[in-house]
Structures are given as C-alpha cells and as structure tokens.
C-alpha cells in the first residue's frame, strides 16, 4: 500500500481539490495549500470524513516568498519527507490584447504562475527524499504550447512552466527526483470566473456547447503519472477535451 506524503498548491478548488480527493482515496497523506483558509478547512474535513489519511493545511499566498518559506518550515515532522510536490496553484487574470493589457494582471500571473512555483519548489526541495521517491508535477497548460489571441502573458507564463519543467528535470535527475508536467486544455473549474474577475455569466460561455474536461480528468492523469514504477517518468502529458483538438479550435454543437 502506498502512503506517500504529497503537498498540493491550489487545493481549495478545481484541479488541486480533485487531485487531493483522488490521492486521499489512494492512501496519500496530504499537505493542502491555498489562500482561502475556510475552503482549505472544508476540503480537509471532506477528505477526513471519507479516508483515513493524515492532512495538514498551509494557508499561504505563493507570491509571498516569506510566507511560503515560513509555512513550509512550520510543517510538523510527521509530514516530512515530502515525497510529491504538485505545483498546481495558478491563474489567468484578464483576456486582452497586449496593447490593452493591464499591468496589475500581468504581475499577478507572472508572480503566481512562475515566481510562486519557483518559491514553493525551492522551499520544498530540501524536504524531498533523494532515493528515487521524490516527484514534482507542474501544472502547465495547452496555453504554454500555443499562444492564442488575447492570451499573451498567461500563455507566456505557462510556456515558462513548460521549459522550467525541462530544466528542473535535468537538474534534479542526479538525486533522482522525477519532474513531470501536465498540460490541460479547457477544464471547467473556477479558472474562467477568476480570469473574468467574478463574471460568472461570461465564464460559463467558455464551456457552452461542448464537453469540456472536468477537474477529475486531470486528477486521474496526475495519479497515473505518480503511480508509474520508479524507473519510469512521464515527462509531460497533454490532456484535451476531444472537442478541443488544439488551443484555438473548439467544436461546439
Ligand atoms: P481554480 O481557479 O479552480 O484553482 C486555482 C487554485 O490556485 C485555487 O485553489 C487557488 O486557491 C490557487 N491559487 C491561485 N492563486 C494563488 C496564490 N497566489 N497563492 C496560492 N494559491 C493560489 O483553477 P484550476 O483548478 O483550473 O487551475 C489549477 C491550475 O491548472 C492552474 O495553474 C491553471 O493555470 C492550470 N490550468 C487550468 C486549466 C483550465 O482550463 N481550468 C487548463 C490548463 C491549466 P486560493 O484562491 O484559495 O488561493
Ligand atoms: C487554461 C486553458 O486554453 O483557457 O490554461 O488557456 S486555456
């Protein structure tokens, strides 16, 4: 039986929350991270009611490096070593052409999707086993593979995650710590509500007329990557709705 200890950023919602539930079902102990403390507590309670795993919550904003290092340092010994890190916290903010872009949106995306991922990784790495059990999974996106109209800075942050994952893989192979990246297409989560700053009507339209991915589709792919034998690494996995053959094409009914 598997009792890995797994730290998931962005576990309050969407892909992170679905992954937490699936990993708990598969006997993983969990360190759940996010900014919304009350949601962390309710996800933790939901999991504890269903599965006999240990759970610790860390309320932190990945953009704040002091907060990240202090939170990870505060972890009880029972949650170390951290076998698996899932760098999932991320967001898009706004959808404008570059010339109409909002500086605050750009900074939010760069600070969360790229710098936040780096801070968390740097803080967690000393706590990861160096015997082949360590595994990092980064959430990229199809947006990092293909730039689409108005996506500019979000696409750039995810392209950075894509190439950073390659760099991390080669740097950490000597331990070895495996590094994988998953690149989803359209998944209906809070993602578009956040992108459109709370405009739920507009967010809903993104998923109209086709069968989008759901968070659990990504969770299952993540579990597949984690559950390979030690000598196998899935470097990257692109997962798309069948109705979305590439970043810019959606076949709507
Ligand atoms: P959600 O908005 O549902 O979840 C995002 C999660 O990230 C939340 O738990 C949120 O928690 C957390 N988060 C955001 N900003 C911060 C921050 N500054 N500090 C800490 N946590 C933060 O979206 P998804 O589940 O869809 O997104 C998860 C990842 O998947 C993201 O990296 C996204 O870019 C990527 N992705 C999503 C796709 C999609 O179509 N949905 C497709 C491809 C990739 P809280 O607000 O509590 O801090
Ligand atoms: C989220 C998917 O295509 O909206 O990364 O950018 S997309």
CATH class category: Alpha Beta
- Secondary-structure element order, as H and E? EHEHEHEHEHEHHHE
Helix proportion of residues, in percent?
40-55%
Quaternary status: single chain
CATH topology: Rossmann fold
Q: What is this structure's SSE topology?
A:
Blueprint: E1 5-9, H1 14-25, E2 29-34, H2 37-50, E3 55-59, H3 65-73, E4 84-87, H4 103-124, E5 134-139, H5 152-172, E6 177-184, H6 191-195, H7 200-206, H8 215-226, E7 236-239
Parallel strand pairs: 1-2, 1-4, 2-3, 4-5, 5-6, 6-7
Helix pairs in contact: 1-8, 3-4, 4-5
The site of NADPH dihydro-nicotinamide-adenine-dinucleotide phosphate (NDP) has 31 residues, from helix 1, helix 4 and helix 6.
Structural descriptors:
253 residues, alpha/beta, Rossmann fold, 15% strand, binds NADPH dihydro-nicotinamide-adenine-dinucleotide phosphate, binds 2-hydroxyethylsulfonic acid
